[in-house]
Design brief:
Elements lengths: L2 H18 L12 H6 L11 E6 L13 H10 L4 E7 L16 H9 L7 E8 L8 E4 L19 H7 L5 H10 L3 E4 L15 H8 L5 E6 L2 E2 L1 H10 L2 E5 L6 H5 L9 E6 L4 H9 L3 E5 L2 E4 L1 H11 E8 L5 E8 L5 E5 L4 E2 L4 E4 L4 E7 L6 E8 L2 E2 L7 E7 L6
Parallel strand pairs: 1-2, 2-3, 5-6, 6-8, 11-19
Antiparallel strand pairs: 1-9, 3-4, 4-5, 6-7, 9-10, 10-11, 12-13, 13-17, 14-16, 14-18, 15-17, 18-20
Helix pairs in contact: 1-3, 3-4
């Protein structure tokens, strides 16, 4: 199914989400259908793959989040997500005294049960392995049984969440990671910079060894409000999948304010078909781009086709009796494209060009003579292919009627 069909289905399901989460309960007054549709995250399919919008790190009250799992499902529908994982902490259970639940799969089951009939939102089973530095936190998604990933400790009386956590972490981080891999899980290192006092990611032997032996598959380069250039470089150095997530604990509306133009960080995952198996395959194949604020982060193999699908040059013609070439750039994505002119021709008053999300920008290019064709080159400033390098887009255009 192409983007048009998916957009129609999402619009209908977002209406259902309005019923699941009345806007007044979010503290922002009533929301119109147009406002709900405007918050849906949209990026085009590439020439080879379907582009799915995925959030692989969220929480509910079944660990340390503050909403029921059905709210996560409804938010995902409103945000136009294709897939979501509710990844509860296996060991950190601060609400356990109020919400006792011996089954660590319960959050996933509640989410699946709350997914509206007719929804094509994919609910992915996942868990967060929670350890202190140097191991830190790791997510395991596409697990079959979360209970097999934790050795539940004694419940202290009176209840103390930290003591319960200590009692539940006698199984080593390596043993849990091994168990997740035995289930065929895709595993990634979470908010790695939070393990260190200088807030910079440092890869230590545990992560280095598991990346090398194929037991650690990805790393978050964006989590919540933070992007880590060091984590991006570690992903490139150790062949890890680039991951971007919300890690939301409260309401998406509170933390990211989509009603004010914000959005949760997400993964754009490039798949052959719309299914959980296809997402899993793409994650292992590292076919992802991260969208964080207005920044697109990815390897050239994945990022360039997305940019080519997102930004097109739809028209090139000279203004009558001038040597000023008009070219219209059309943006088919949610990202505001920030371009630096590298063509060698003067474009307007300066060389920085903004093409609004789902909008157009007409360029007035002074070529010095009337040409039959032209090659335009732009550095995409709101995209990264390494922590210090932006991708380049080129357009070779034939000019309509370049005569006098």
């Amino acid at each position: 199914m192409g983007n048009t069909g998916r957009k129609t289905i999402r619009s209908l399901l977002m209406l259902a989400a309005v019923i699941l989460i009345p806007a007044t309960s979010l503290g922002h007054g009533s929301a119109s259908v147009a406002e709900i549709e405007d918050r849906a995250i949209e990026f085009p399919d590439t020439a080879e793959f379907m582009t799915l919008i995925v959030d692989l790190h969220t929480h509910s009250v079944f660990s340390d989040g503050h909403v029921w799992p059905n709210i996560r499902v409804a938010e995902a529908l409103r945000d136009g997500l294709d897939a979501i994982a509710i990844t509860e902490h296996l060991e950190w259970q601060p609400h356990l005294e109020d919400i006792p639940h011996p089954d660590r799969n319960r959050s996933y089951n509640v989410a699946v049960e709350s997914n509206p009939e007719g929804s094509d939102l994919i609910i992915i089973a996942g868990s967060e392995i929670t350890r202190r530095a140097p191991h830190g936190h790791m997510n395991a998604v596409f697990v079959h049984d979360a209970n097999a990933l934790v050795r539940v400790g004694a419940v202290p009386e009176p209840f103390d969440a930290r003591e319960y956590y200590v009692n539940s972490t006698v199984w080593t981080a390596q043993e849990v990671l091994d168990a997740a891999n035995e289930q065929g899980a895709f595993t990634f290192w979470n908010h790695s910079w939070s393990n260190f006092t200088n807030a910079k990611t440092e890869i230590l032997e545990f992560h280095r060894a598991n990346a090398a032996n194929g037991k650690l598959h990805g790393i978050e380069v964006a989590n919540g409000r933070t992007y880590s250039a060091e984590s991006f470089q570690i992903a490139l150095d150790h062949n890890l999948t680039l991951i971007g997530v919300s890690d939301v604990h409260n309401l998406i509306d509170w933390d990211y304010q989509p009603h004010n133009g914000g959005h949760r960080p997400v993964n754009l995952v490039f798949v052959q078909e719309r299914s959980a198996d296809a997402i899993r395959e793409a994650l292992f194949a590292r076919r992802t781009v991260v969208w964080y604020k207005n920044l697109l982060i990815g390897r050239p193999l994945e990022l360039l086709p997305l940019l080519q699908a997102s930004l097109s040059a739809d028209h090139a013609a000279y203004r009558p009796a001038t040597e000023v070439l008009e070219v219209t750039l059309a943006n088919h994505s949610d990202a505001k494209m920030m371009l630096r002119n590298l063509t060698g021709f003067s474009i307007g008053e300066h060389d920085i060009i903004e093409v609004p999300a789902h909008g157009e920008k007409t360029l007035y290019i002074r070529t010095g003579e009337r040409l039959e064709d032209v090659t335009l080159s732009f550095e995409v400033l709101n995209a990264l292919i390494t922590p210090n390098a932006h991708p380049i887009l080129e357009y070779s255009l034939e000019i309509d009627d370049p005569g006098p």
